[in-house]
Amino acid sequence: MKEQLNGCSFFMKNFYDNYCIFAENIKMTTTETIVDKLPLMEAFYTIQGEGFYTGHAAYFIRLAGCDVGCHWCDVKESWDENLHPKILVSDIVSQAEDNGKLVVITGGEPLMWNLDHLTSKLKEKGIQTNIETSGAYELSGFWDWICLSPKKKKLPTQSVYDAANELKCIIYNHHDFKFAEEQAAKVNKNAKLYLQVEWGKKEEMLPLVIDYVKNNPKWAISTQTHKYLDIP
Ligand SMILES: C[S@@+](CC[C@H](N)C(=O)[O-])C[C@H]1O[C@@H](n2cnc3c(N)ncnc32)[C@H](O)[C@@H]1O
Ligand SMILES: Nc1nc2[nH]cc(C(=O)O)c2c(=O)[nH]1
Ligand code: SF4
Ligand SMILES: [Mg+2]
């Protein structure tokens, strides 16, 4: 019996050691090989124009690639990742270091890529990491602030509903108010709630958004202030 137990614990220890080596290898592969480069459309230092951080200086890193297909998207040039160069994460981070203390990762849909490596390197440099995402892919990365802007065409994953700090719903038509309420019911209860009018529909829809927020004060208005300020 004792021999059997000894054998068993030897087996378990061996299994555990091998598992740790296996897990470490996977970690190394994802960190070093798969995501040492990311498709970058542009990076620019500006003022956050939307949501909770409106008005704060921020360095925007716009990763390329998106398959969600919003017909009113204001950055369709980002959709095809093949049109943009793959840049070393170390170079993206060193550029960010020269441009303030807050980075916003956007796109395209940034969560198409595993963002663990990029965000851990930014955090190592003491930079705050915020993300703008539709939530259509599983959450990766280490975040100080997550802005979830859900889209009907490709709904968010549970991982993003659970971790979001703000929910920013775009109002293009009347049905979008209903969709916004459905999304508010799915996001974690601490998330701040914003309605943002679709830029091309603001003359028609902004008065409705203003009335809606006055009648439903759990919501606040987010406007694309950078477009009024005529900055990037
Ligand atoms: C270009 S998207 C990139 C990040 C991510 N794909 C997403 O949709 O959240 C950045 C933000 O702009 C919003 N947005 C895009 N086009 C817009 C438009 N025409 N009017 C208002 N907001 C818009 C998105 O909903 C999102 O909150
Ligand atoms: N100034 C400024 N603020 C922004 N907030 C979210 C943006 C985005 O495109 O993700 C954006 C942007 O493109 N410019
Ligand atoms: S998910 Fe974001 S980047 Fe993709 S089409 Fe919609 S607004 Fe544009
Ligand atoms: Mg924008």
From TrEMBL:
Name of the protein in its database record: 7-carboxy-7-deazaguanine synthase
Function in brief: Catalyzes the complex heterocyclic radical-mediated conversion of 6-carboxy-5,6,7,8-tetrahydropterin (CPH4) to 7-carboxy-7-deazaguanine (CDG), a step common to the biosynthetic pathways of all 7-deazapurine-containing compounds.
Gene coding for it: queE
InterPro entries, per the entry: 7-CO-7-deazaguanine_synth-like, Aldolase_TIM, rSAM, rSAM_sf
Record-listed S-adenosyl-L-methionine binding positions: 72-74, 108, 149-151
Cross-referenced PROSITE patterns: RADICAL_SAM (PS51918)
Binding, substrate: 47-49, 62, 106, 232
Catalytic activity of the protein: 6-carboxy-5,6,7,8-tetrahydropterin + H(+) = 7-carboxy-7-carbaguanine + NH4(+)
Domain Radical SAM core: 53-232
Family note: Belongs to the radical SAM superfamily. 7-carboxy-7-deazaguanine synthase family.
The entry's keywords: 4Fe-4S, Iron, Iron-sulfur, Lyase, Magnesium, Metal-binding, Queuosine biosynthesis, S-adenosyl-L-methionine
HAMAP family cross-referenced by the UniProt entry: QueE
Cofactor note: Binds 1 S-adenosyl-L-methionine per subunit. Binds 1 [4Fe-4S] cluster. The cluster is coordinated with 3 cysteines and an exchangeable S-adenosyl-L-methionine.
